[in-house]
Amino acid sequence: MRLHEKVAIVTGASSGIGEATAIALAEQGATVVLTARRLDRINEIMNQINTQGGKAIAIQTDITKKEQVLQMVDEVNTKFGRVDILVNNAGVMLLSFLDKGKVDEWDQMIDVNIKGVLYGIHAVLPTFKKQGNGHVINISSDAGHGVFPSSSVYSGTKHAVRAISEGLRIELQATPDIRVTIISPGAVATELTNHITDSDVTAMFSQQKIIPLQSKDIANAVIYAATQPEHVDINEILVRPATQR
Q: Which pTM does this prediction carry?
């Protein structure tokens, strides 16, 4: 129960890494705020956590809408009087080759993967500064460390997450009790790949022989970063499957 009395917000908590992270945080004693667009799913996970003795609430939020994110954080502050951890997890991976011209999907990735992260930071930073402490944990990707065919735009958004995170960390050095962590997963068995519409990409992936990580593996990395002593700031964790090269 290393996070007893901490309040943690997890975006994209309706499935995958977000769901596993919310459950793991609750197991460590945190009060967890589950946010996502799918209210039925986050309500289900909230009930699961509460039934098992944890503490969780669900707030339906579209993280591409700045006002909704601000309203969600205001609601958390009103209810609990603080926010200690923000896990910016919500993301989309709409891989496609650039010559397919899937501009709407490019826009969606920019809105969710970049703007959503920025809106989360914007919403919690005043609370963190008022408290004098807090922890932003941004979920990037190993695609933020490189580029592969079909990942040009997705990698661009995840490079942006890493740049934004590092910039935030540098800007907050005068407030060392506000920590910033980037977690970059490699291949993980989640719903992300189900939304890829480029058939050439899905065909390419079908040839790969990778045993993917599970969502809980990334949740474990979040817990590791979040439970370090206050003077320790885990800047970045890159986690790949052993079979991924």
A: 0.95
Q: Which of 154, 168, 223, 226 is catalytic?
A: 154
| Cβ-based neighbours of 224, under 8 Å, separated by 6 or more | 234, 237
- Residue-wise pLDDT for 2-27, tens only, equals 999 999 999 999 999 999 999 999 99
Choices 3.20.20.70, 3.40.50.720, 3.30.450.20, 3.90.550.10: CATH for 7-239: 3.40.50.720
Is 224 considered catalytic here? no
Rounded mean pLDDT of 59-78? Answer: 98
Maximum separation of any 2 CA atoms in the chain, in Å: 51
Lowest mean pLDDT among 29-43, 83-97, 181-195, 208-222: 181-195
Residue 36 above 80 pLDDT? yes
Domain coordinates in residue numbering, the chain = 7-239
